[in-house]
Amino acid sequence: MLEQDIKKILISHDEIVAAARELGQKLTEDYQGKNPILVGILKGSVPFMAELIKHIDTHIELDFMLVSSYHGGTSSSGVINIIKDMDQDIKGRDILFVEDIIDTGKTLKSLKELFEGRQPASVKIATLLDKPEGRLVEIEADYTCFTIPNEFVVGYGLDYDENYRNLPYIGVLKEEVYSK
């Protein structure tokens, strides 16, 4: 039923799993002996984070933040609302934000600046998708699985109006669905 709203599949489930496996191996090397805190940005990061952590073979901790900047539309409003902050002190800890997509970059830039004021050992970003054409501020991920064109994508955690997160792939949403 949901597939009728998809213009094309951009990244298959198998491609996502392979990229998460490769990134997990890299994170295992980079964070060996450091016990980083992986901070999932809710809600979109959940499927990617769940896949990614299966492939990290070193001690990690998990935490989550709920941050909103879309408010039901198809583009970021630029207003960042932290609805749920982390549950633990990060002073002296290595932090890795896990994100579904970096589009405008405003959310992650704001979060990175906020966290740097909390005196962590390091703050890095891992993202499933990077959409550099959408960038409005200067920020780059430290780890990127896929760079995508400037199209409205859903699936594997990404949504339009809270729908389509459960698709097992990344697809381009038909324009008529979100231009109603």
From TrEMBL:
Its main location: cytoplasm. Keywords: Cytoplasm, Glycosyltransferase, Magnesium, Metal-binding, Nucleotide-binding, Purine salvage, Transferase. It is an enzyme of class 2 (transferase). GO terms for biological process: GMP salvage; guanine salvage; hypoxanthine metabolic process; IMP salvage; purine ribonucleoside salvage. Pathway: Purine metabolism; GMP biosynthesis via salvage pathway; GMP from guanine: step 1/1; Purine metabolism; IMP biosynthesis via salvage pathway; IMP from hypoxanthine: step 1/1. Residues 13-160 form the Phosphoribosyltransferase domain. It comes from the Bacteria. The keyword Magnesium applies. GO terms for cellular component: cytosol. InterPro entries: HGPRT, Hxn_phspho_trans, PRTase-like, PRTase_dom. It catalyses: GMP + diphosphate = guanine + 5-phospho-alpha-D-ribose 1-diphosphate; IMP + diphosphate = hypoxanthine + 5-phospho-alpha-D-ribose 1-diphosphate. It is found in: Cytoplasm. GO terms for molecular function: guanine phosphoribosyltransferase activity; hypoxanthine phosphoribosyltransferase activity; magnesium ion binding; nucleotide binding. Its cofactor is Mg(2+). Its EC number is 2.4.2.8. Belongs to the purine/pyrimidine phosphoribosyltransferase family. Purine salvage pathway enzyme that catalyzes the transfer of the ribosyl-5-phosphate group from 5-phospho-alpha-D-ribose 1-diphosphate (PRPP) to the N9 position of the 6-oxopurines hypoxanthine and guanine to form the corresponding ribonucleotides IMP (inosine 5'-monophosphate) and GMP (guanosine 5'-monophosphate), with the release of PPi. NCBIfam families: HGPRTase (TIGR01203). This is Hypoxanthine phosphoribosyltransferase. It comes from Streptococcus australis ATCC 700641. The gene is hpt.
